[in-house]
Amino acid sequence: MEKALVTSGILKPTEKRIDKWMKQGKTDLLLFALDKVLYKTREKILVSLREKGDVSVIPHITKLIDDDVQAVSEAAIETIEKLAGNNLKDDLSKRLQAKKDYWVEQERQESVRKMTGYTGILRKIKDSEYDRYIAIKNTSFEYLFAMIEDLGGVSGDDYLQDFEFSYKALNKDWKLIKVDDKLDFFTFHNLIGWFYGYEDSKQAPEVVVGFAEHHTESSKNYFCFLDSTNLSRDTIVGAFDNEENFFIFLPDAFEEGGNLTVTDSFRIDVEAEKKYYAENGLIVSEFEIDLSKKLIKMNVPED
Q1: 147-189, pLDDT tens digit by residue?
Q2: Residue 2: exposed, middle, or buried by beta-carbon count in 10 A (0-12, 13-18, 19+)?
Q3: pLDDT per residue over 276-300, tens digit each?
């Protein structure tokens, strides 16, 4: 009788009734109520179902894996995993893992948003598909090589290895450095900010710009530089040749493929940037001409 009254809408799944159903073990009414209550109550029902250990509820709660509320989604995932145990089917297991990865990424993005003010969509980069350069205005190679060695020794000298840096003067103002192909995503982009050095450095450059030239697809070419609006100096911003803008939050840039994040949070004037580079002799197609080479020992990951 009670079930008929509830399913017909005459009796509402109030908090008091739900508490009573949980005590009475009325699983059918609890499952019915899942779509009708606020997220905190949905989460409470899932915990009750988990504790009861009834495997038959799994098909009824899989829809909550994709609940918009993270707490409910994670409660559904935990409930399904506990109830299914070693009998969890591969397709469902993959779905659960995908959702867990999604929430991890959402939390990462929210953390980055709080630090940078930017949001966007993560895009993994294969460094092996690029030639990567850094152009530096008004400094010396002596200073630049010292700064590379400085960065390379931050983690100690237990695992130092040789990295090849190619270099040349582009003109009287600009120097160019091509980084080793095996240098990792983080270190390449970190160097862009690192070259600015310390406040008391008399040789600190005026401008530093990174260029990444894709081997086969020009739309994937990009330039980047230190975000001048970020006082922590831990964010790189840039744009692809197709004018997509992106940012890189350096403290999170260690993972394979990096953490380049395509964004609409700001707009870089790509044409104006390219015009400035051309006027200053920064012609990427000419970067490979007449490069000298230097080995520098660094304790950094290989890509």
Answers
A1: 999 998 876 566 789 999 999 999 999 999 999 999 999 999 9
A2: middle
A3: 999 999 999 999 999 999 999 998 7
